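so im writing up the methods section and need the Small acid-soluble spore protein H record in one place, dumping it here so i stop losing it
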Amino acid sequence: MEAKRAQEISSSSTMTTVTYNGEQIYIEHVDQQTGKATIHPLNDPDNKQSVSVSSLIEQ
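--- predicted struct ---
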């Protein structure tokens, strides 16, 4: 995924299915300059991670 698309998804009021390592995640924040996104699994909001947006897959 590209950083611009990740930002669009995180800003949208519509829920879009995105996965990271096969697990559905929520995108909290996207840093378009570094290409990193702050995410957490849908079922574990306290488990925040910073990952490359290129590793996110839109379903």
